[in-house]
Amino acid sequence: GLLTLAGPAAAHNLLVEAKVLDADRLRVETGYDDGTPADGATVTVGAATGTTDARGVCVLPRPPAGDYRVVVDDGTGHRGEVTLTVPADPHELAAAATAWRNRWVMAAVGLG
Questions:
Q1: 112 has a pLDDT exceeding 60
Q2: What is the pLDDT of residues 40-81, one digit of tens each?
Q3: Sheet of 14-20: strands edge to edge?
Q4: Please, is 106 exposed, middle or buried when counting C-beta atoms within 10 Å of its C-beta (0-12, 13-18, 19+)?
Q5: What average pLDDT does this structure show over 22-30?
Q6: Alpha helix (H) ranges present in the chain?
Q7: Which run of H or of E encompasses 54?
Q8: What whole-number distance in Å separates Cα of residue 90 and Cα of residue 92?
Q9: How do 95-97 and 57-61 pair as beta strands?
Q10: Among positive and negative, which fits the CA dihedral 8, 28, 50, 43?
């Protein structure tokens, strides 16, 4: 028989990239696996919360050193997250991202 996907299983994946920009800022960029940005999604990093702009970008204050779950929720059932380790040295940068590979695999086989 045919396998039918319903609900969130058939939804676009929400891809997340988080970068420590400098001693003061953390940048989160998010979009769907079809390449469109997630405009108006809620971004949570520790106690800080923000909203993405039309480019799918949200800039938050750099949190203290430690491991943080970066969670993005577009409010329609799409959610993505990565774990980012913020270094103790304020001059040291860091980045974490969900795998973008699936987007390219789907495009290669004509599904994306």
A1: no
A2: 999 999 999 999 999 999 999 999 999 999 999 999 999 999
A3: 57-61, 25-32, 14-20, 95-97
A4: middle
A5: 96
A6: 101-108
A7: none
A8: 6
A9: unpaired
A10: positive
Q: Which residue has the tokens 């319903």?
A: 6
Angle (nearest 5°) at CA 77 between 74 and 81: 65
**9 pLDDT higher than 90:** no
Pairing of strands 42-45, 48-51: antiparallel
CA atoms within 13 A on the CB side of 75: 8
- pLDDT, greater one: 105 or 63: 63
| Those residues with Cβ within 8 angstroms of residue 69's Cβ, 6 or more apart along the chain or in another chain | 45, 81, 82, 83
